[in-house]
User: Fold this.
Amino acid sequence: MIYYLLLPIFSLLVLIIQTTVVDTLSFGKAGLEISLILVVYAGLHLSVIRGIALSLVIGFFLDCTTGIVPGFFMFSYVLISLISNTISHRVYARDAIFIIAFTFMCALLGKLLIVLMYKVLYGINVFSGILYVSFLQAAVTGLFAPVFFILFYRLEVFLNVWETRSPDRL
Amino acid sequence: MAAPKRPYTIIVALALVIISLITFSLINFGSSEKTGLLKKTVLEIAAPLEDAANSAFTSIGLAWERYVLLVGLERENRELNAKITSLMIEVNNYREMSIEYVRLRKLMDIEDDSKNSTVVARVVGRNRLSVFKTVLINKGTADGINIDFPVMGAEGVAGKVIETSWNVSKVLLLVDYNSHIDALIQRNRCRGVLQGSGKSGCELKYVQRSDDVRVGDVVISSGLAGVFPKGLVLGKVVEVDKKEAGLFQRIGVCPALDIARLEEVLVISTRMGDDR
Assistant:
């Protein structure tokens, strides 16, 4: 229960760190999508419902603050979470190389969905315009993913311990 | 242990996926006319937090930038003083022309259509790395701002308001792929549609190949689409390409405003739609 209560607060925090701290440190060149890393982590390590719930919340917050097409981030993050969850049953998801490669692929998938969305909804071809930036952003996100996986894992352990102990406190 | 939970898990997971699909499909029903209560609440919570975090980090970056800038300050000061003198002469000329214009309008009995009031706002949130080019400003419906109001910077048009909550609004910048503004070339009144092309540029579309467009031409709003009043500066032509086959020429436009350094904006609370 604590997980679902903390979900909106944690998601908002991740979003704010992403749009402020990371954005400033990257000097507007190659960004790091912490929200996407979190969604991939949730897909690989959490239960399917927890993963989708987190993707929905963080996607909704992104839609509210930076999105233009309603529900786009929600949809793409849920899709990425589901793919991650499906794959997690078949691979050893703690290997750093796998995390880097898989997060990189997911980041590219997210950008591909944007290209498809523009093409289908508005008939605009944005592929060439965002190709270089997308590739760079996906590479940076992939490279930093193992570090954030460790952070998220520690947080997950902390929350689990807290959740297990909380009935004793009452 | 996991077996009894399986149908429940599948149902809940499916329900959540359906929620995301429904929200995504809402765009086809034109439901984005008004900002929902939940969205408004998120905007109200997120914007002040982003503002606080942004202020702290930006001030650290600015401190270093300002220190570096001090190096060429004396030379720049002399150049700017010279520029001010020439601009003062230019302003005086324009003032004379303006007085003459008002006098002539009175003579011709033409009604003044510049009844726009403005609201000054500050940029409190942005995501420079997102494909979607939007910023959050710290004024909303409480200050009289509504959807489709034009947003200006010091040098020209920044974009238009696409979502509003009580004290925060989301602005679609003119460099976004979704931004389309009916525009004119100031010099010869050639018409086109200015569309954002991501990053920091725009493209003037649907200008006929026979039209005379040159690098350096100023692009202004035509006032036809009902959002932007006529004559607002949009940008400058930086590239003209007639080599591609087709009816139209390819025109690259650099926005008048430095989008990356946008800090304060002016929201024009015009109601052009009412006049239509």
About this structure: Chain A touches chain B through 50 residues (CB under 8 Å).
